[in-house]
Amino acid sequence: MHHVFSHHNPYPSCRSATYARHGMVAASQPQAAQVGRDILAAGGNAVDAAIATAAALTVVEPTGNGIGGDAFALVWMQDEDGSGQLHGLNASGVSPKALTREAVIKTGHEQMPLYGWTPVTVPGTPSAWAALSERFGRLPFDALLAPAIQLAREGFPVSPAISEQWQRAERRFRPTFTDPATQEWFSLFTPEGHAPQPGELFKSERHAATLESLAQSRCESFYRGELAEKIDAFSRATGGYLHASDLAAHQVEWVDPISVNYRGVEVWEIPPNGQGIVALMGLNIMNGFDDLHARDDITVLHRQCEAIKLAYADGHAFVTHAKHMTTRIEDLLSERYATGRRNEITETAMTPAPGAPHAGGTVYLATADGEGNMVSFIQSNYHNFGSGVVVPETGIALHNRGHGFSLEADHVNVVAPSKKTFHTIIPGFLTQNGRALGPFGVMGGFMQPQGHMQVVMNLLDFGLNPQAALDAPRWQWTGGRRISVEHGYPTHLLREMSRRGHEIDYAFDLTGFGRGQIILRDSATGILCGGTEPRTDSAIAVL
């Protein structure tokens, strides 16, 4: 589709889109992107490159992801005739069997805590790597983790954006992490007594040794081996809920991706428990407006904000793991429901409430090879470094994904044993007429569906190329009528938004607006066109 593969960039001060023929890796860290590119050069496919890049990111960007987090993927495997199939992988883990609502309340919590053992669910990231490699990979699994092992063992110079996030986390954690379960965080991440400065060499033999164990066992050691035993022992010694039996029961889920048709392009997401459905609901609402011609237009911006509010209200009210939902996914994505929600949008800002449908810290990377295979991959420790719980002598920082559970007894996402929570991380993918356009994603907690909707509209409604679509200023709904905006929006536009009832907040910290990557493929020529995030140390490596 011509305007998806546009050369248009209205932000000339920013980077131009990147083109390649034989392969491309877009990631939030240059060293990780280069690892993926080297795997392609060694004969690996897009899946191999994604796994290697993801493993490297656990080393060079520990502020957002790690071995102890969760992962999702959308994988396009190309056929010789140019068609193919999109596969969905949900590798998120469930809550421990010992984690009940009553147990959490008994410890004095009125809502799920952010730190400590309580929000720790079974990590799924290692299982994602192994499952992807087994089903679609070409190179030996240990070869994919070798670059990450080398980075951890020999060290790497910390990039500027990651150093800033690392230092900010240390300042927050020093007075917060006081219990035995979180003390190891300082030993692992501040070995010299402080978070690393930009350019400072950081190495972790513990991380390297754990990656070696994963490489040699194809990640079995994490769930049914030596690493599982260490996690279990530390949990029992420090009051955790997560045990070896929880890890041993973990299995990935191969799922059928869900989609909506937006302007003639299929936009794909992972089904719940992921929040990708929120992005699709928002796009479905916007799909009914035919006058979206200018990006910096008051009507467009107002409608975007109102649509995402409605989508999020429904997401929080109805979405959890699919098997626990009482509202059907197809009802939430139906044209009838979208029309009803669209009709609720007026000329003034609203405080959203759920509708009534019929009876529901992260890294993102994208890879493509010269054969047409493409991967949209995301993994996360959820909130920066995660729960603060670091398993001694392993380099494993456990995520705090369980923070997403509710403690309301009648809520669809109420915490319960062996349950997957409403999940923020979402990989995206675009297809048209049965052929791949390519992977896209914008990480960043609850910014992600909002980023997905804005990026897709930048591509499809406003004709921006992948780099320009990521460079464009973003907004974020933060609750009620509050809209946080990046600098770059015209002042007159924001004044009009205020007149319509929006509470506008200028944001100085750009980390809250997500970090994205895009790779699109021209089906006629096979040429790849990529964009990478300007708000962090991102890079594209090409073959």
UniProtKB/TrEMBL annotation:
<dbReference type="Pfam" id="PF01019">
    <property type="entry name" value="G_glu_transpept"/>
</dbReference>
<dbReference type="InterPro" id="IPR029055">
    <property type="entry name" value="Ntn_hydrolases_N"/>
</dbReference>
<keyword id="KW-0012">Acyltransferase</keyword>
<dbReference type="InterPro" id="IPR052896">
    <property type="entry name" value="GGT-like_enzyme"/>
</dbReference>
<dbReference type="InterPro" id="IPR043137">
    <property type="entry name" value="GGT_ssub_C"/>
</dbReference>
<keyword id="KW-0808">Transferase</keyword>
<protein>
    <submittedName>
        <fullName>Gamma-glutamyltransferase YwrD</fullName>
        <ecNumber>2.3.2.2</ecNumber>
    </submittedName>
</protein>
<dbReference type="GO" id="GO:0103068">
    <property type="term" value="F:leukotriene C4 gamma-glutamyl transferase activity"/>
</dbReference>
